[in-house]
Amino acid sequence: MARGAGSSPDEDDVRDPEAFRVEAVARIRAAVPERTIVAASGGIDSTVAAILTQEALGEKARAIFVDTGLLREGEVEKVSAFFRESGLPISVLPAADRFLGALAGVTDPEEKRRRIGTAFIRVFEEEAEMFGTSHLVQGTIAPDWIESGGALRDTIKTHHNVGGLPKDLKLQIVEPLRDLYKDEVRQLARHLKIPQFDRQPFPGPGLAVRVGGEVTRERVAVARRANAIVEEEVDRAIEAGRMTRPWQYFAVLLPVRTVGVIGDNRVYGEAVSVRIVESVDAMSAVATTVPWEMLRTIAERITRELTGRVSRVLYDVTDKPPATIEWE
Ligand code: XMP
Fold first, then answer.
1. Which 8-state DSSP code applies to residue 129?
2. 159 lines ligand 1 (CB under 6 A)
3. DSSP 182-197
4. Nearest atom of ligand 1 to the alpha carbon of 159
């Protein structure tokens, strides 16, 4: 099932998902002598990893979902419901103060990722100790570690669950999906009959990488509403048959102030960039041609619902490469 770094996705390349499942369960049993915790984000990668771990270890595995305060609207409720539906017991851990505290005053994208990575690991170390294990299963996939400098490349971004690990790590990390690409994980998810496998990918560091500049509670709230508006309008356009579901569609709050006008008053607000891309495995992506009326509705809603905060909305037409999918 694994594919070499740099090769392109090709269905012929994907081995039998059933064979992968059997092997992965055996590898998890071999790697984990007794009990383990599993980092679950509600995303496809960690969900597949969690389901395989549960199959391997049953009650000796405990999935943990961390509420970082950097999640999308309604995400805690959606993820909890999703795991209930999948029959996977999960603990939700509220940790917004810890994450936002760790990010205070930080503007450098790599430093943000490192601090988020460290905060995640500290949370998991504490939880592992309480559960009586030193093992942590993660849903790391190939692009995560390739882009974190794991192969013959410079670090493009430190993925929070890879390069963001602190040096004094107390946990032993188990990564059953580390040789797979996104399309292969999706294929496996379908095979495992995991519901909602068509959810769009959402980065582990959450809205922090969609808030350019300092990540404050207030700026996260602006990015959260803008992201929800983009999702709602794309869903509406899909339902109306005006477009098909793109790979990813979201909003980014930029570290830019810009002049606007409300009635007779000048406002000095912020700018939001809308990003909608097509991709197969996230290693490359193309900016999508989308209905102009939908973009205008998004711009109108963002500037109205976030009036005084956001005075300008842009559409990002850059492919990956040269850009990346997320801004940071
Ligand atoms: P980039 O921005 O590097 O993103 O082109 C490629 C894909 O990965 C997602 N992404 C992440 N996923 N942890 C994750 O689990 C991360 O730190 C992370 N950073 C980016 C991104 O949304 C896109 O789908």
1. H
2. yes
3. HHHHHHHHHHTT-TTT
4. 17
**Cα separation, 102 vs 70, whole angstroms:** 12
Answer yes or no: are the C-beta atoms of 292 and 212 closer than 8 Å. Answer: no
Contact (Cβ atoms closer than 8 angstroms) between residue 161 and residue 120: yes
| Separation of CA 75 and ligand 1 centre (Å) | 18
Contacts 24+ apart (CB under 8 A), 263-268: 267/308, 267/311, 268/311
Specify burial of residue 297 (Cβ count, 10 A radius: 0-12, 13-18, 19+).
Answer: middle
- For residue 326, the ligand 1 atom closest to its alpha carbon is 2
Type and span of the H or E element at 90: strand 90-94
Q: Is 163 in the pocket of ligand 1 (CB under 6 A)?
A: no
- Say yes or no: CB of residue 275 within 6 Å of ligand 1: no
The answer to whether the CB of 201 is under 6 A from ligand 1 is yes
* 70 alpha carbon – ligand 1 mean position (Å): 15
The model's pTM: 0.88
The tens-digit pLDDT sequence of the chain (328 residues) is 545 444 444 444 457 999 999 999 999 999 999 999 999 998 899 999 999 999 999 999 999 999 999 999 999 998 888 888 877 889 999 999 999 999 999 999 999 999 999 999 999 999 999 999 999 999 999 988 888 887 656 778 887 666 567 778 889 999 999 999 989 999 999 999 987 666 788 998 999 999 999 999 999 999 999 999 999 999 999 999 999 999 999 999 999 999 999 999 999 999 999 999 999 989 999 999 999 999 999 999 999 999 999 999 999 999 999 999 999 9
Ligand 1 neighbourhood includes 248 CB (under 6 angstroms): yes
What is the position in ligand 1's atom list of the atom closest to the CA of 285? 5
Q: How far is the CA of 157 from the centre of ligand 1 (A)?
A: 8
C-alpha to C-alpha distance for 296 and 117, rounded to whole angstroms: 36
